[in-house]
């Protein structure tokens, strides 16, 4: 059976800043590839540049965007023109028929009605192969438009060569993305090709109009963060002399191999579509940020110093989200990839002094805490990665557990205060409750990795003790985790429905159960498992109300929690993902199954608005897959928890029947 026909790559794309149905992009891209491709329907500099239900098109965009909140880097847009030739993208837009277009992971086809041009694309590892079929009798060009940053272009033989320095929130020294577009069989008329907007060197408005020879023109695209020569080399490595059809077949075969890693039977085609649309999403991120040199060795641009270094690198990943589901899922179905990805993350520590937190090319650091700790603990538990890799990873964990960076984007925020008080004081740092709970979990992860590596009992014991610091914030009177100031005082006028301030993207309800590493200890604070589960009952039974609190305005996560109407169980956002599974941990499997089934069946479907909130680099998709299998990584770094029922009829993992 082929699974690509069940994939809707537009699932979750029907989103706006004030309400997320996924906040995804319709990416035609190979698994984990360096280059992704998506139609651009509007506003190139916005993170919401694609609308699935708008039959207007500004072009086909090279994108690396992991989230609209992070935005894009190293992007450009391609648009065929012959009804006039315009130097600005808004003037060059065309209508297109959504229903006649083909959106697949391995193949994209759209007809630009204004220019009468059929645009086909199949992705490669670091670029794409494209084929343009001009269906009108007018001289046609393929225009290259900017997105952000400065651009420059030049023509060399059959190549259009370009470079941009465009990036957004990250720290990336001397960043450049080079791209090479090789036109086959004389498909480019170099004499008539026009470069515009760069009279005085690289400029924000620079672009190119490549004059096309013939009714059918093919081109191959390669990209590099290192050099123009590497971009050309990427074309040779990815495409060679292969035909467009052969490259399409390769992309299709690769995606089918990944989708076949989890084979399920469901009651309906709709359930198959939801499952495989989610499975596709889990294999998009993180993106490869390394390249292969002429000798076949991996090399990469280093954002810390702008130099080229040996080895692997990966990017476009927010650990605050992905640690919960993505990496435990990789430990089941993508172990080799997980090991290489982790090696790339550890290289950031070796080269820049800090393990990554939210890299999008360079470090963004937009979410708190160092939850890569959980990814490393998961790898250590499951035997992923070499001893040397885990040794280096442990050194990086110990570094950020005991040292605070002068730049807030690196390391643990509030680290020194946490070491001094055993918690992060609420008057010194925002989100102090979550910073404290995440640090305690990170300390538990350090103890686990150190123990598996045979480190001293003293070191292990030190971090096991630190892992209990969550207890310092428990308020027995209210049954919530609450912030304390430097004198140990909690705030007056406590409101458990108030978001922000001491909490990250939630209130006390969404933040107080983030003690996955020691649920037995958390139960003791409540007076036993029964009382903890009663508090959890209260969470599910509470009305889905919220107060804007420290945010001073409504944020979309509030809106989505209220829309889901599952009490204070915000399946729309990652901090709530594990709530039902706490029931299973304490033996109430039927109650767990009830809430998992409701969330999965009522709030996930393979439509353009098919997610209950931000999908976030595979995290929500992997949650759905685990729900279908009846297992969940309640605490990454520990074995899964299970319930008897699956939401699918049967499943195979890597070809083996799945038995829990």
Map the helices and strands.
Layout: E1 36-40, E2 56-57, E3 59-63, E4 76-81, E5 94-95, E6 102-103, E7 108-112, E8 117-123, E9 127-134, E10 141-146, E11 151-156, E12 159-164, E13 177-183, E14 188-196, E15 207-212, E16 216-224, H1 228-238, H2 244-259, E17 262-265, H3 269-282, E18 287-288, E19 290-292, E20 298-301, E21 308-310, E22 314-315, H4 319-322, H5 326-333, H6 335-352, E23 359-360, E24 362-363, H7 372-381, H8 387-402, H9 415-421, H10 432-452, H11 457-466, E25 474-475, E26 480-481, H12 508-511, H13 519-526, H14 529-541, H15 556-564, H16 579-585, H17 589-603, H18 619-629, E27 631-632, E28 641-642, E29 650-653, E30 656-657
Antiparallel strand pairs: 1-3, 2-5, 3-4, 4-10, 6-7, 7-8, 8-9, 9-16, 10-15, 11-12, 12-13, 13-16, 14-15, 17-29, 18-22, 19-20, 20-21, 23-24, 25-26, 27-28, 29-30
Helix pairs in contact: 3-18, 6-8, 7-8, 7-10, 8-10, 10-11, 13-14, 16-17
CATH superfamily of the largest domain: alpha-1,2-mannosidases domains
What does the main sheet amount to? 8 strands, antiparallel
Strand content: 15-25%
Find the CATH topology of the largest domain: Glycosyl hydrolase family fold
Q: CATH first level of the largest domain: which class?
A: Mainly Alpha
Distance between the termini: 24 Å
Radius of gyration: 25 Å
Mean pLDDT: 97
Percent helix, as a range, is 25-40%
Assembly classification: single chain
What ranges have pLDDT less than 50 throughout 5 or more consecutive residues? none
Name given to the CATH architecture of the largest domain: Up-down Bundle
**Domain module count:** 2
The DSSP helix count reads 18
Structural class: alpha+beta
The largest sheet has its strands arranged as: 6-7-8-9-16-13-12-11
What general form does the structure show?
globular
Total strands: the figure is 30
């Amino acid at each position: 059976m082929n699974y690509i026909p069940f994939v809707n790559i537009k699932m979750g794309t029907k989103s706006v800043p004030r309400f997320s149905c996924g906040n995804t992009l319709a990416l035609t891209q190979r698994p984990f590839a360096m280059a992704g491709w998506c139609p651009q329907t509007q506003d190139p500099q916005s993170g919401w540049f694609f609308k699935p239900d708008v039959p207007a098109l500004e072009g086909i965009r090279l994108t690396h965007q992991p989230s609209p909140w992070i935005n894009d880097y190293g992007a450009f847009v391609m648009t065929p023109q012959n009804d006039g030739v315009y130097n600005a993208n808004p003037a060059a837009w065309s209508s297109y028929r959504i229903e006649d277009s083909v959106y697949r992971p391995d193949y994209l086809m759209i007809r630009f009605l204004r220019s009468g041009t059929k645009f086909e694309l199949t992705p490669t590892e670091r670029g794409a192969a494209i084929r343009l079929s001009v269906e009108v009798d007018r001289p046609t060009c393929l225009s290259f438009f900017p997105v952000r940053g400065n651009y420059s272009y030049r023509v060399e033989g059959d190549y259009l060569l370009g470079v941009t320095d465009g990036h957004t929130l990250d720290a990336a020294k001397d960043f450049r993305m080079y791209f090479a577009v090789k036109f086959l069989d004389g498909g480019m008329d170099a004499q008539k090709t026009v470069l515009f907007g760069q009279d005085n060197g690289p400029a924000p408005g620079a672009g190119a109009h490549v004059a096309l020879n013939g009714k059918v023109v093919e081109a191959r695209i390669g990209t590099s963060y290192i050099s123009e020569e590497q971009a050309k080399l990427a074309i040779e490595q990815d495409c060679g002399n292969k035909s467009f059809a052969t490259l399409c077949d390769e992309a299709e075969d690769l995606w089918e191999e990944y989708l076949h890693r989890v084979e399920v039977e469901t009651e309906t085609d709709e359930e198959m579509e939801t499952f495989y649309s989610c499975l596709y999403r889990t294999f998009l991120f993180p993106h490869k940020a390394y390249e292969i040199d002429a000798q076949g060795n991996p090399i990469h641009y280093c954002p810390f110093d702008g130099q080229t270094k040996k080895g692997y690198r990966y990017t476009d990943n927010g650990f605050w989200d992905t640690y919960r589901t993505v990496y435990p899922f990789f430990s089941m179905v993508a172990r080799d990839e997980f090991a290489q990805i982790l090696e790339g993350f550890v290289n950031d520590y070796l080269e820049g002094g800090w393990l990554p937190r939210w890299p999008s090319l360079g470090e963004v650091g937009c979410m708190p805490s160092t939850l890569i700790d959980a990814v490393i603990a998961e790898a250590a538990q499951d035997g992923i990665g070499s001893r040397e890799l885990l040794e280096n990873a442990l050194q990086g964990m110990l570094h950020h557990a005991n040292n605070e960076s002068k730049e807030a984007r690196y390391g643990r925020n509030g680290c020194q205060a946490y070491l001094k008080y055993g918690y992060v004081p609420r008057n010194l740092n925002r989100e102090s409750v979550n910073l404290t709970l995440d640090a305690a979990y990170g300390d538990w992860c350090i103890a686990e990795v150190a123990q598996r590596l045979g480190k001293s009992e003293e070191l292990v014991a030190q971090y096991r003790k630190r892992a209990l610091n969550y207890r310092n914030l428990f308020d027995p009177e209210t049954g919530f985790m609450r912030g304390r100031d430097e004198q140990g005082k909690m705030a007056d006028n406590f409101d458990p429905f108030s978001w922000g301030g001491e909490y990250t993207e939630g209130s006390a309800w969404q933040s107080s159960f983030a003690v996955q590493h020691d649920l037995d200890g958390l139960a003791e604070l409540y007076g036993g498992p029964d009382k903890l589960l009663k508090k959890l009952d209260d969470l599910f039974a509470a009305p889905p109300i919220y107060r804007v609190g420290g945010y001073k305005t409504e944020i979309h996560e509030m809106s989505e929690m209220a829309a889901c109407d599952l009490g204070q169980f915000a399946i729309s956002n990652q901090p709530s993902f594990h709530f039902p599974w706490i029931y299973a941990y304490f033996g109430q499997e039927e109650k767990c199954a009830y809430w998992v089934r409701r969330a999965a069946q009522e709030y996930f479907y393979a439509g353009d608005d098919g997610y209950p909130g931000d999908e976030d680099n595979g995290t929500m998709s992997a949650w759905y897959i685990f729900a279908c299998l009846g297992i969940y990584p309640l605490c990454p770094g520990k074995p899964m928890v299970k319930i008897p029922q699956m939401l699918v009829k049967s499943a195979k993992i890597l070809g083996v029947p799945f038995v829990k």
